[in-house]
Inverse folding.
């Protein structure tokens, strides 16, 4: 299962993913690390779609091996989310604006998510892990 943790920069995607992935025994790919490996810091629309496809390649590989995978990245538009094609989406809806104005301007609130985090709590990752477990059983 491919799990997307998305939201504006500074919303807590990486922090949540870091706490979540060991609980559900999942691989974890962080967008900044993946961009660093690819040496691709292009944040144009084309660059963002390329990053979503790159993240999908890693996630699809993990899924093909029967593993859960958590990928955290902004994934700001309907097109980038479609390019990644998650099985389960967590939206970090914890801030109104991120630290990058260009990202704020193009960010499209998702129409459908499987779990929305509206505020931080110390057990968000535990609650979400249970949701993922229930989702897998359906």
């Amino acid at each position: 299962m491919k799990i997307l943790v998305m939201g504006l920069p500074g919303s807590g995607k990486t922090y949540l993913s870091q706490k979540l992935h060991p609980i559900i025994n999942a691989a974890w790919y962080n967008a900044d690390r993946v961009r660093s490996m690819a040496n691709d810091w292009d944040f144009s629309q084309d660059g963002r779609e390329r990053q979503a496809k790159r993240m999908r390649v890693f996630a699809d590989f993990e899924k093909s091996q029967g593993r859960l995978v958590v990928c955290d990245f902004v994934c700001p538009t309907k097109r980038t989310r479609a390019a990644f094609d998650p099985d389960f989406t967590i939206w970090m809806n914890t801030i109104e604006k991120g630290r990058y104005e260009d990202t704020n301007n193009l960010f499209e609130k998702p129409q459908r998510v499987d779990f929305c985090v509206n505020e931080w709590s110390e057990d968000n990752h535990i609650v979400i892990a249970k949701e993922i477990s229930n989702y897998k059983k359906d």
Q: What stands out?
A: Helices lie at 13-23, 31-38, 45-64, 78-84, 101-106, 124-137. The first strand starts at residue 2 and ends at 6. Strands lie at 2-6, 27-30, 69-72, 88-92, 115-117. The longest helix spans residues 45-64.
